[in-house]
Design brief:
Layout lengths: L1 E6 L6 E6 L14 E13 L4 E4 L5 E6 L2 E7 L15 E11 L16 E8 L3 H12 L4 E4 L11 E4 L2 E4 L5 E2 L3 H6 L2 H4 L1 E3 L3 E6 L2 E6 L5 H6 L8 H16 L2 H5 L6 H8 L3 H16 L8 H13 L2 E4 L5 H8 L6 E2 L4 E6 L5 E6 L4 E10 L3 H8 L14 E10 L9 E4 L6 E5 L1 H4 L9 E8 L7 H16 L1 H4 L3 E12 L13 E3 L2 E3 L9 H18 L7
Parallel strand pairs: 8-9, 8-20, 9-17, 14-22, 20-27
Antiparallel strand pairs: 1-7, 2-6, 3-4, 3-7, 5-6, 10-11, 12-16, 13-16, 14-15, 18-19, 19-20, 21-24, 21-25, 22-23, 23-24, 26-27
Helix pairs in contact: 1-15, 5-9, 7-9
Protein name: Amine oxidase domain-containing protein
GO molecular function: oxidoreductase activity
Length: 548
């Protein structure tokens, strides 16, 4: 069977080839499970017929549908294929040999030997935690396979390209002072673009500036007597800032905890400061305007904000996990490969996984489950230790994007809803932070709401948001904005109200480890830490030394 696909110059990282010869019949028939066992031949050439690569064996994944077998080839595994430098289209021609697996419709053949793969460690989930675990394995020279059910790495930290715009999947920012991230990421290569250290707060029909007096001294003085809290509130902010900056992270994450709201009140902040600034600001970070999240996370984020900057990578928030994936060994990431179940050996020790297509992957040293909480619970069942906060529904958010011809705000600053009215929590214009988020001459508008608003259609929700924005910027401007896309993120963060037990042991049992923000804390940095610690625990069980 052979398929050909032509793609144009761009930054796409995958090619999907449809092998019509593998058609499984009509839509009513049960799908036949195919496993691509070997790629007979693949050639990649520019359209002017100059060969780039021939007869290469590459890693691939396949899915089946009534229309045929669809193969995804990761071009980065094609050595010497400089696609990003091509100015013309690229032709990919491939032929593939397939093997039909016997088994049920759900893809579980009951036979993990056939078509199986062996490796040292299987990591399930290519979000930040899974990528951090993979990075640690690579550093320690441990063979591994990172298995991801979706079509890309990053988990919730992803960016879509749409009509020339970069749309992050929900409101996300990256704080440069995250300690683990500083060890893991190449900030210069990410080309981080910085926010203004402060915010514009909508209250009483006008925007009022709140500024970090250390970085914006004049603006800080000017904000002392605005209605967003009192002058005393601003002084208390400075005191809390200094205290958080010098407190060690481990001490913060193991300290006595309460809710953010209780902590703010105990610090002496006025109700006006809490309602008009802290609710929308930290409500936007933790998707919790009621401020019931643990005070430990408040202190940790406050520390990072004091020592670093809010930023966006020029290529979108998804550039962070992509950078991590790009540094992993060739062929170590398997996409579009959802794990159906964990596999055990004769002694009852977790020894690998079975994919939904029936293929088994055995792990010599162990399995690291790095998925979101609900998926981890599905795979581990009763073995996954829970806490009261894990059992609660996760935090959710909705993000709407609009295209505009110009921005009413010409600085890289966050806008907060300091009133008790409306559904908008916060918004900003990403192109004022990173112009690369939109085509030339266009402005990107990002509006964030808390919750899913499940009983409201996208069009109704857009109308409600527009009505609210008209009161902020005027109808003439807002009515000219074109709606691009609405994201409803059902699992934006795990619910982390006290008691949280943030420092959780990643070891479930011999050969089985779990990591992710649901096991540590709901921040970028915590996901990275939990992935690393899971592999360190695995290596300790195997009596091997980890390179920190």
């Amino acid at each position: 069977m052979e398929a050909t696909m032509v793609i144009s110059h761009g930054s796409a990282v995958q090619l999907s080839l449809a092998f019509k010869g593998c058609s499984t019949g009509n839509n009513n028939s049960s799908p036949t499970n195919y496993s691509s066992t070997r790629l007979c031949n693949i050639s990649v050439r520019a359209l002017q017929n100059k060969p780039i690569l021939r007869n290469a064996t590459v890693g691939l994944s396949s899915t089946n549908s009534p229309g045929g077998l669809f193969m995804t080839v990761d071009y980065k595994s094609l050595r010497g294929c400089p696609m990003r430098r091509q100015r013309t289209g690229i032709e990919v021609r491939a032929s593939v040999a397939t093997e039909q697996l016997t088994g049920s419709e759900d893809g579980d053949s009951g036979n993990t030997e056939r078509g199986g793969t062996e490796t040292g460690v299987v990591i399930v989930g290519a979000g930040l935690a899974g990528l951090a675990a993979a990075r640690q394995c690579a550093q320690d020279g441990i063979p591994f396979l990172l298995v991801e059910g979706s079509d890309g790495v990053g988990g919730r930290v992803r960016t879509d390209s749409y009509q020339g715009f970069l749309l992050d999947r929900g409101f996300q920012i990256f704080i440069t002072a995250y300690p683990e991230a500083q060890k893991v990421l190449d900030y210069e290569a990410l080309n981080l673009q910085t926010f203004y250290a402060g915010a514009l707060v909508w209250f009483n029909g006008a925007f009022h500036r709140v500024a970090d007096p250390i970085r914006h001294f004049t603006d800080g003085l000017g904000s002392l007597f605005n209605p967003i809290g009192s002058a005393i509130d601003k002084v208390i902010v400075g005191i809390v800032r200094i205290r958080a900056a010098v407190k060690p992270v481990d001490e913060i994450l193991s300290s006595e905890e309460t809710t953010i709201l209780s902590r703010l009140k105990s610090e002496g902040f006025s109700e006006a400061m809490v309602d008009r600034f802290f609710r929308p600001f930290f409500g936007g970070i933790f998707f919790d305007r009621e401020l019931q999240t643990t005070s430990r996370l408040f202190e940790f984020v406050f520390k990072c904000l004091a020592l670093g900057s809010n930023t966006l990578p020029a290529a979108g928030i998804g550039a962070i996990p992509q950078q991590m994936a790009d540094k992993l060994p060739q062929g170590s990431v398997l996409l579009n490969s959802r794990v159906a179940k964990l596999e055990k050996d004769d002694k009852g020790v977790t020894s690998g996984v079975v994919l939904e297509n029936g293929r088994g992957i055995s792990a010599k040293y162990g399995v690291v489950v790095a998925t979101e909480g609900p998926e981890a619970a599905r795979l581990l069942g009763e073995k996954l230790p829970t806490t009261p906060s894990v059992e609660k529904p996760p935090r959710s958010t909705t993000c709407l994007y609009f295209s505009a011809d110009s921005s009413p705000v010409n600085e890289p600053i966050l806008l907060l809803n300091g009133t008790k009215n409306g559904i908008i929590n916060n918004m900003f214009f990403p192109t004022t932070v990173a112009p690369s988020y939109a085509p030339a001459g266009k402005t990107l508008v990002s509006v964030s709401l808390l919750g899913l608003h499940e009983n409201t259609s996208d069009s109704e929700l857009e109308g409600t948001v527009r009505a609210e924005l008209r009161s902020w910027f005027g109808p003439q401007l807002v009515d000219s904005w074109q709606h691009l896309r609405t994201y409803r993120i059902s699992l934006a963060q795990p619910y982390q109200a006290p008691p949280t037990m943030l420092l959780k042991n990643p070891r479930v049992e011999q050969g089985l480890y779990v990591c992710g923000d649901h096991r540590y804390s709901s921040t970028f940095d915590a996901a990275l830490v939990s992935g690393r610690r899971a592999v360190e625990e695995l290596l300790a069980d195997c009596k091997m030394t980890s390179s920190k």
